[in-house]
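Collaborator request, handled under Task 6.
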Amino acid sequence: MGLHTCKAHELRPRLERGEVGAEELTRAVLGHLDATQPAINAFISIDPEGALAQARSVDQRRARGESLGPLAGIPVALKDLICVAGGRTTCGSRILENFVAPYDATAVAKLRAADAVLIGKTNMDEFAMGSSTENSHFGPTRNPHDPQRVPGGSSGGSAAAVAAHQTILALGSDTGGSVRQPAGYCGVVGLKPTYGRVSRYGLVAYASSLDQIGPLTKDVRDAALLLGVIAGHDPRDATSANRPVPDCEGALSQGVKGLKVGLAREHFGAGLDKEIRQAIEAAAGRLEKEGAQLVEVSLPVAGHPDYCIGAYYLIAVAEASANLARYDGVRYGYRAPEAHNLQELYHRTRSQGFGPEVKRRIMLGTYALSAGYYDAFYRKAQQVRTLIRQDFERAFAACGVLLSPVAPTTAFGLGEQLEDPLQMYLNDIYTVSVNLAGLPGISVPAGLSRDGLPIGAQLLAAPFGEETLLCAAQVLEQTTLN
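Structure tokens returned to the collaborator:
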């Protein structure tokens, strides 16, 4: 097995001892990426020269005996809505195809401070609007486990890149499951931190009250390592939580003895594939065998598809309508040619620059916010959001973590759901309520289907409960592998 298949926590001591050089590791990753990119299309842009320069700098500083960061020499890929100074940030859209970010996102600045090697930007559903990474101006990403299937979305490029060993670590963003669902489809670990745990400064907004940057990694320990690097208060983000960053790596060895694991009856109803139900029930049994106590809980609003999906898609599209109003052909991004007046410039730029799914959501959001409909739709969705948060508060009064499926099925075929938006939205039935409540959640591989496709198990914790969440995830991962 080559260096590109290793995990970050395995590589770190080898790099520190000088057994492996950062440039050697980076060349191994870039070589594999170059060979596999045409088949998977996980990346929008790759920066081999910049990455190798960063890696050489790490090797030179190590040789001089300088102190280095916790990710020194480790290659990291970034979803292409996270700004990197001097590099393209496209959001998978024609309208930003040639946009060059003038500054680093806070998460990127933290990666640089940790001496990570930034190798490129990954493919995504346009402006993070999708569940399959098919809604990209740069073509769909394919699932490494079956190239005829989707990798999930909207962080499908990051998930596929990790699963295909095209990078060691990756960052995605999660608005309604966009880290956890592709992680489940691709058989990797995807962590959505508590809202406010990781700064959103430099993350191009889809829905500002829901978006959160999160790690996609090969195992739980790497997710804990990466979270420890990117988390923390940021005064440039008004929603950033001023709380200390926990020692998530240190918490991994605590085990689950005595931990109450909640199973919500609403997460095991109609529509859940039989194989996935069996895999989640088996995961619960493994946790119980390790000393956890299983308890039944209820999420009558958060677990009801009509309520959680409806509230999510009203709030998200309303915020998207406001956030994407800035793309008008005047300030930056694509500008339609031959417009004769300002109204025509707006119309042509947005019609030509945005794809069909983004336009659909902008129109839905604008309608939901319009005079006469605001109270009936947006305000009502916010009231349901409060009920969803209260559902989880009651559940976590009875348990330490919740266990559920990540998605109702395994990865579906490319093109299979593109003409049925509602069916596409229902892939997020177990994930969107988590963003509405601002909770941390993680997807962990829980086995394979008869067709050899990954099945993900989702664990949830109370706000800022990442230590408990990661500890339970570590036990679930280890018992699954064994």
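The cover message to the collaborator said: "The chain has a mean pLDDT of 97. The chain is about 40% helix and 10% strand. Please let us know whether this matches your experimental observations."
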